[in-house]
Amino acid sequence: MHKAGLILHQGLDAVVAAAQPGITTAHLDQVFRTVLADHGATSNFLGYHGFPATICASVNEEVVHGIPGERVLQNGDIISIDAGAVVDGWHSDSARTVLVGTPDPANVRLSTITEEAMWAGIAAFAKAKHVGEIGNAIEDYVRAQPGEPLGILEDYVGHGIGSAMHQAPDVFNYRSGMRGPRIKAGMVLAIEPMLVRGDIATKTLDDDWTVVTLDGSYASQWEHSVARHKEGIWVITSPDGGAANLARYGVTPVPIPQN
User: Fold this and answer.
1) How far apart are CA 124 and CA 229, in angstroms?
2) Domain 2-249 adopts which CATH fold?
3) How many CB atoms lie within 10 A of CB 239?
4) Average predicted confidence (pLDDT) for the chain
5) In angstroms, rounded to a whole number, what is the distance separating the alpha carbons of residues 68 and 52?
6) Cβ–Cβ contacts within 10 Å for residue 193, how many?
7) What is the pLDDT of residues 211-242, one digit of tens each?
8) Which of 257, 258, 251 is nearest to 123 (CA)?
9) What's this model's pTM, rounded to 2 decimal places?
């Protein structure tokens, strides 16, 4: 899984660099396909329940599951790129928000808070006894931010990951009121808050995939796959295991022991 996670990281790096005004979302998908092919990995998105691409490219009011196509990125767009990689049957999953061209300060704030909410959830995973504590930490961080309140999507959540892309348990991004399963060594979770600048109500478009906000408000998604092992945690979709970002939470990730 760690190998798949590092290939995924490289693929997302390439997509983020390519996400410029005038580029189509289909081109971004091709960039990611090329990285996977060059490293001997496969996509866990392509063909998943019929999904036709290797990345989800969700632009502006599109929250998740946007299908890459002929849409041309415009200056000021905000786009969430969600993707996965498989190596030897083991999965990884990660997402980033990209601000295209000259960003709207409100979108910068949205993406920044969403990303940091993810890190707050990952830091909680390092010490938590139950999965529900991750959602508690995410919501607590978001609600503590000054300024315009942001909505936390409730219909779409994180998940376990391993020999399949989506496994138990669900990882809520908010205070659900449930403790959730007990956390054990060997658990790998995809932690992925999705925030919007308006109301959290959404609908799915006629393509049966793309989810958009009903009020047209813009959205952001950030995600990492994180392993909890006997010695600590390690973000498998980050080359440093999350060390740089987790330091401000007093958490030091520990490399996965090699048996």
Assistant:
1) 14
2) Creatine Amidinohydrolase (3.90.230)
3) 13
4) 97
5) 9
6) 34
7) 999 999 999 999 999 999 999 999 999 999 99
8) 251
9) 0.98
